[in-house]
Amino acid sequence: MAEHMPPWLIKRLPRVGETKEVDDMLAGLGLHTICDSGGCPNKCECAPDGMAFLIMGDMCTRSCTFCSVNHTAPGPLDPNEPAHMAHVAKTLGLRYIFLTSVTRDDLEDGGASHYANTIDCLHKEVEGIGVEVLIPDFKGNREALETVLKAGPTVLGHNIETVPRLYPEMRPQADYEQSLCVLRMSKEIAPDILTKSGIMLGLGETSDEVVSTMKDIYDTGCDMLTLGQYLKPCRGAHEVVRYVTPEEFEDYLVTAHEIGFHGVASFPLMRSSYEAESFYKSTLESIKASAE
Q1: Distance of alpha carbon 45 from the chain centroid
Q2: How many CB atoms lie within 10 A of CB 70?
Q3: Which end of the chain is more exposed for a tag (fewer CB within 10 A), N or C?
């Protein structure tokens, strides 16, 4: 277990009432954010423009040991959620929105059609909005993945999360190769849609394992990679094994660029949704420059 949290990870917590107006609106519509459910350290910096919305409820059918989302039997999907999500985007004046979800292994398509409906509603309600989705693995179901991609997300993300050796401990109901396959299939189905993945550090992985995992992700055709420090989100979650230094994150940044990723964000408090729009735009610029 790691020692006390180092100073580079200390961030200001939201003040009481600071995000009350937005929180009340979301609560009134039965909507959730991973900022709250996942205990994100960047909440007070990102809200409201950079919030990461959590669809399909806040109860997950899996029990990953790094996560603070409730692991219990979820209820039925809210058929009004896609329209409510679009209403929030329009009300807040969002031009780019980040959506993720719990894993819904209880649903035949894993919730893919719900993702597609939400993307469709957002496009209809807010002209020109960018929609980034961070999806579960859908148990490797290609048809479910096609359903999401046909709706036209701006970026499709699926996080590998950790190195393969730690999967049985950290992601007991997931499979490393299957997650890589999701990224690979995404490029096969819709090669023009950017793909994105992420790795948490500090769980006991070695640097060689991290580099090997980065190469595996790149080999799927993935365009964008994020690396951030794992922080224990709640009691009972996996302990932090080590706090990775900012200098090490910088080294991984250099290595990821050398491997060939068009977009890389690597620093201790990086999260998949952090400054997602600007990360997307800078990646597009990198792709354009490499083609010239």
Answers
A1: 17
A2: 12
A3: C
